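Morning, I've got a small favour to ask if you have a moment. Here's the protein in full, and shout if anything looks odd to you:
***
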Amino acid sequence: MELKIGTNIILETISSETSERFRCKIVEQKNNSIYIDYPINVKTNKTSFLLEGSQYRASFVDDSKVAHAFKTQVLGRIKSNIPMIMLSFPTDDEIIKIQRREFVRVLTPVDVAVEFDHQFYQFITEDISAGGLAIIINQPVAFKENDDLQLTIVLPFTNSNDGIKYVQTSAKVVRFIERDNTIIAPLQFTNTDDIDKQNIIRFCFERQLQIRKKETAF
């Protein structure tokens, strides 16, 4: 598979306890390697220096709006007119095509850590989908409608092979809703990579299936 110069790539750490994401662009592709500009940390918005030998999960969207993912490793740094980092690029059969589905909203509690203006909060969701979620506001908050938040979402899959997935993304506060003496804040995701979006979709379908089984059991 050939990648066009300028293709946006999202890199996510896969070998460290702390998950980090970086955005970068393809500068060049040769044989089984791709060359990227120096990546920007999605959370801090600062340039990062990737260590040689470190491994990442990469995702990108092609011209047909189809998302793909693959594992890659840092092969080295290249000094040229533009400073570049060389990454391994797999064969076509090692690149995963991510299927896109409709966003399914599921009423289920999920732990969400929220960061806003250097303040941290912990909430439980009322519902979640690949497009966003709604949190139950159980404490005073500094953020308001249209504010941008940083989220860490905990997805506890029942399948032992999946375990627990941690999704880090940004979101915008849509509004605040008061219902039955409870305040709900729907949030819309604004920077979720395709692999994380796929994990949320799988989690929603899994929970939806569990709910249906419980309903048919009575």
